[in-house]
Design brief:
The chain is α+β, with helices and mostly antiparallel strands and 167 residues long. It is globular. Helix 1 packs antiparallel against helix 2.
Length: 167
Amino acid sequence: MESYILPNFPREVSSIHLCLFQNVTNSASLRTRLVEAATMEGEQGDKARDEMDYGFVEASMIADAIKRFGISASTKTLLLVRIGSPTTEGSSQESIDSYQQSLVDQMAELVEGDMVPLQELSQTTDWKAVKKLYKLHEISLPGTSDADDKRILEANMLNTLATKVVA
């Protein structure tokens, strides 16, 4: 798991934790839980969303996000992201390590698969789908190496996202 603190964000959403799983076998049940939590109303829906540790916006945006970036019944590789508040300020390194280990344990309990280093994400990325999703198909790639082409695509994708956020 990799963790980052985003100091310019509100404290309650300033901590991000990322775990990459491969050989996922329970993607169908994860998708069902995610969709159910997104569409439940009232107190029961709030409780389900809290259990999923999922920050929500309106339901139509959630459905679109699940369609574009989400999980399908056949998903074998899954990047699990948890956004929340960091441990209490002034915590000892031991308590921070314990907190992060508890997050790893919770994520591993949720997903049936192999936790792998985040660096393996680029090896499992469907670059054709990325090009289509971010409308990068018109970018000419030098073709000198796959690594160079991926770096160019990644940079253009990030530029596209940054432009959308600012606009």
